[in-house]
Amino acid sequence: MNLTRLKNRAIARAITRFPQLAGLFIKAGKNGTEERSPDIPWTPVSKPLSECTVALVTTGGIHHRGQEPFDMDDPDGDPSFRVLDSCTPREDLTVTHDYYDHSDADRDINIVYPVERLKELEAAGVIGRVSDVHLGFMGHITGPHVRTLTEWTAPEAAGLLRDAGADVALLVPG
Amino acid sequence: MGLIQRAIELEGIPTIGISIVREYTEEAAPPRSIHLKWPFGHPLGEPFNRDQHHAVLARAFEALYGLIEPGRIVDIPFRWRKETYPEFGETM
Predict the structure, then answer these.
(1) What is the 3-state secondary structure (H, E, C) of B6-39?
(2) Which residue on chain B is closest to A95 by alpha carbon?
(3) Are B14 and A155 inside 8 Å of each other by CB?
């Protein structure tokens, strides 16, 4: 592991332990504002939650062990995503993300990817069903990768969710 | 995360996001969010605190159905490690 990755992990641990330090890094990590549009997209919810198929989208760097890990050597992050299968056992999931301290998430993935909680809500009849397909991104996308994300990978991911029959998406950060 | 959320909403799927850093969410301007003033890496809370996770999910789904104005961020007043959460089954 190179020095930059070690440094990023040390910062992530410090911020989790002392959240007041986060402000020092928030401004530095800001995306460019040129991507921001005054028009916020809006799709009204059209049916009751008890009839909705719910999909998760995590930016916590979660992926299956057999999938290619997110690229931690590119300082602008990795704008690609991984398709997550809700039937996979918890042991098959792992986290590749140096920009937050995921030691608690490594113990219980539900704090960043609450797929087991959604299954409980499905069993209780609160939601219709848990989507078979969820999506894993890594977040911490800056520089030229912001455009890759907004113009390519995020629309592609959205199309996959639509094709999978998702009625609602819950987005969870790292 | 907000930029991904916008793309999904644009595809015709209603979205709700959990925000930990309010500044990021304000800047990316996703359609609907709840915000928790909790440490990074813990959007649903502490490991194995199932009732806490369900309380957050309940607030998220409430916001999904309750918000009618694009871009709103609902601040959830849960204090880190200082709350008692109802047992799952009583939260919804």
Answers:
(1) HHHHHCCCCEEEEECCHHHHHHHCCCEEEECCCC
(2) B41
(3) no
Strand partners, A169: A55, B15
Are A106 and A62 spatial neighbours (Cβ–Cβ below 8 Å)? no
Segment B24-64, tens digit of pLDDT: 999 999 999 999 999 999 999 999 999 999 999 999 999 99
CB A168 within 8 A of CB A56: no
Q: Are B41 and A60 in contact (CB under 8 A)?
A: yes
Distance CA B92, CA B59 (A): 9
Count of A–B CB contacts within 8 Å? Answer: 192
Q: How far is A22 from chain B (nearest CA, A)?
A: 9
Residue B92 · residue A125 · CB < 8 Å:
no
